[in-house]
Design a protein that fits this description.
CM_dom_sf, CM_II_prokaryot, binds the ligand C=C(O[C@@H]1C=C(C(=O)O)C=C[C@H]1O)C(=O)O, Chorismate Mutase Domain, subunit A, flat, chorismate mutase activity, Chorismate mutase, about 0% strand
Length: about 90
């Protein structure tokens, strides 16, 4: 496969990633609103560790990169949650 074809392929993957990212952030917003309504702490370290363990164990040779990616995803999700609740 040549460079152009591979880049077309990566563009398609990026579109999927972006759609999933937007979907994840939309859900995170709903979770934040529910937590405020029920007076629950926004940050849940146990849940975050569970996600990181699962991601690492499922991504084999990319595990260290997947971990970094999901730490960033959760940081962005918490940053947005704080914005949503006006903190
Ligand atoms: C979305 C939540 O809120 C926070 C953000 C998380 C995430 O982005 O996956 C996970 C745990 C919480 O620290 C949640 O509690 O599920």
């Amino acid at each position: 496969m040549n460079l152009e074809e591979l880049r077309r392929e990566i563009n398609l993957v990026d579109e999927e990633i972006l759609k999933c990212f937007i979907k994840r952030m939309d859900i995170s917003e709903k979770i934040a609103l529910g937590k405020i309504e029920n007076n629950i702490e926004l940050v849940n370290k146990t849940r975050e560790e569970e996600i990181l363990n699962k991601v690492e164990s499922e991504s084999k040779k990319y595990s260290k990169y997947s971990r970094k990616l999901f730490i960033t995803l959760m940081d962005l999700s918490k940053e947005f949650q704080r914005e949503v609740i006006g903190d």
